[in-house]
């Protein structure tokens, strides 16, 4: 039996953590994602850019008062990719 390849974009630990988090909420701001994943700001920023470029998430930059605020939200393409990743992973796990 041939296994389907895992999505390399989601196979990264941090990108998978970001997607798992965003799947369960309507949206999340950068600070919350950083706290939940334990990632550094620089690394998280790079990984969010990769997910955004793949159209798995949307990124909205704005301000809350005078403080900059970046909010991320999973797209329908991202949901489909995440569900396909999980389904493929389950095929690897089940004998």
UniProtKB/TrEMBL annotation:
Record-annotated Winged helix DNA-binding domain positions: 14-93
Region forming the signal peptide: none
Source species, domain of life: Bacteria
Alphabetical UniProt keywords: DNA-binding
Keyword Repressor: no
GO molecular function terms noted in the UniProt entry: DNA binding
Official protein name in the record: Winged helix DNA-binding domain-containing protein
Organism, scientific name: Roseivirga pacifica
Lineage of the species this protein comes from: Bacteria, Pseudomonadati, Bacteroidota, Cytophagia, Cytophagales
């Amino acid at each position: 039996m041939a296994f389907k390849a895992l999505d390399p974009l989601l196979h990264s630990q941090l990108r998978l953590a970001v997607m798992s988090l965003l799947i369960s909420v309507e949206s999340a701001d950068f600070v919350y994602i950083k706290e939940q994943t334990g990632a550094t700001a620089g690394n998280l920023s790079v990984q969010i850019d990769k997910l955004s470029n793949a159209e798995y998430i949307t990124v909205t930059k704005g301000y809350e008062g005078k403080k900059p605020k970046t909010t991320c939200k999973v797209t329908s393409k991202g949901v489909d990719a995440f569900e396909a990743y999980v389904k493929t992973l389950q095929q690897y796990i089940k004998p």
